[in-house]
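Worked example (supplementary).
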Amino acid sequence: MINPFDIAPEKITAEILEFNHKLAQGIHTLAGLEEPGAGVSAKDAVYQEDKMVLYHYQPLAKQRNPVPVLIVYALVNRPYMADLQQDRSLIRGLLTAGLDVYLIDWGYPDEGDCCLALEDYINGYIDRCVDVIRRMHKVDRLNLLGICQGGTFSLCYTSLHQQKVKNLITTVTPVDFHTRQDLLSRLVRHIDIDTAVDAMGNIPGDLLNWAFMMLKPFRLTAQKYMDFIDILDDAEKTASFLRMEKWIFDSPAQAGEAYREFIRDFYQQNRLIKAEVIIGGERVNLENISIPILNIYARDDHLVPPDASKALAGCVSSPDYTELEFPGGHIGIYVSAHARDTLPQGISSWLGGRSD
Amino acid sequence: MDKNSNPFLNSDWLDMQRQYLEILSSLIPDAGTADFSNPQQSAWLRALEDWKESTENVLPDQDKLIYSTIFQQTKIFYSLAGWFTALLQEITAKGNDTDAWQEIMERHFDLLKTQFNSTGIGDTDSGDDPSSVWWSLFDTWKQTWGSLVPVTAGRDHNRSENPFVNIFENPASNSGVGPGRALQEKILKGNRLWDIYRKNLQKYQTACAELGVIAVDRLKQRIIAKAGSGEKISSLKQLYTLWVDANEEVYAEFAFTEDYSQLYGNLVNSLMELKQHANSVGDDMLAILNVPTSRGMKTTRKRQQLMRHQLRVEMQSRQQTENSMNELRAELDKLRKQLNAGKSKPKRNRSKKQVD
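After joint prediction of all chains, the assembly is encoded as:
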């Protein structure tokens, strides 16, 4: 067998020298950049309760759809990922497509919030935000768009308050938490969540970052940064990378009780698809959902595998159920160029036909 | 933002540092000066450390962490360069012997495998051989999880010294009014929990060391596969990518098993029990000093949350009552108006009726 190593030792030296050059140039680039911001689209706070703020984005185009859209983000990570930069913003795309967009920002829970349960988030904050928007727009129902865990919350909410929701869009939303490719679910399977929450109170954001990192530890801790060195001489690309890094590590703590319930009931016992989740004394049954649903999932999603999202099809009774596969990963669905060019228009045109 | 727009940035000094690293790099003749058995001899690594120490303080705070991460990974990259160069030098020395490369590669890979066996489990201080890509994960574990438990923060998690002993060397704990036997029992329990955690950590690290050995074999297989198909490895970066892929693949195969789930669960659960015990000990000391404890705060928060729920129910009930009252008032007003309208109509002529 022929020797596959087509590289002389001197060539390695040259490669290291080039590497060092990039590293040295990188310090210039890093030192000259401003701290990345958090979101680019102008918005106004229209309602606030505890740490939660409901934002209304200022329109960017003539509104073509009279029914407002409320984006429910996950508790994990910050929502400005959907509005990361001018040319990578789902929210800007939706605004440009003529939609009236609201977003719930959950804020940063502290020790005083440790007793907040899922009921407080779903029947409390989300429901009151929905009522605020309905009053402001004098409508009976609005459109709900859930992102990841926010999509799971939106499903629970719609199951319990369907009379207030006109159309439901779920994006990279886990429904079946025990699919074969769900590594995150396996990681928490044997965690004694009661001891963990009793010991910690709120769950620090750093722990969640660690758990996500452990899904692909070598790519996410090693290779990512080695590839970053290759772009360190490009200020714009470096700024984009740093913006994403800021978001990745900007993880709020999780309110202890809500986290306990979510891990136990959803991840460990997979109760959602079995219609066994109880929120505020009421059973969440996805079969109750009969309004139009658009379920968007990412083909290469390692956090929420496609099967985990596609399971929704078998749970709802809606006669108007649409699935949309996006070629990308869990985050790419919001920040990639392809997403920018296709997702907002796709959502807007789907809603457009369902606004009467 | 261009570096020139920051008036406080000393770009001349940065330029000097960049030139310093480039000159230093050019003075080191080849990457293969790392003696694999004596990592401290690596000129590359020493130069890199020196340069890092002199430049990192100029970076904005938000970039220091990413800079540190880049350097950590760079050390691993350099170590791969050293190891690979030694391999290539030996292959080159054999000239046209087309089969010798495999035997040489086997020998070097076997040496690399011994690093997983001989390196102190959890010893992440080397960064001087490719195996350190695994050990850097434990650094992150200790920083993230270890910092949650005050008694373990900053400690070597592989040492057996009971961290609870030192707490009670504090004069405040020798007030003479604290419990004697109860305190001793807490120390003993803390000792037991610490031992359980250390054993679980050791099991986890041993499992990772075994995976590292498998990853080395996996890398070897990939290289042989490339040789078989006539593909070439023509850069250090390419080899680095193969190494990362091999590690990721081997890790994923294990991570999806029930064994890993149990191993990880046991590790986290034992640390959380340790934390819970540490919290309890801390609370006991605070109680002696008559200072609010976390136990007490938790009780207070639960009661507060319950009261908020009750208040909201009462407010909703009151609102419904008020709505009902308003409806009744409106109905009453309507009836009054009808009554008044009836009174203002002209009366019939009674005398005319009597004549008839």
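Two points are worth noting when inspecting this output. The mean pLDDT of chain A is 93. The two ends of chain A are 69 Å apart (CA to CA).
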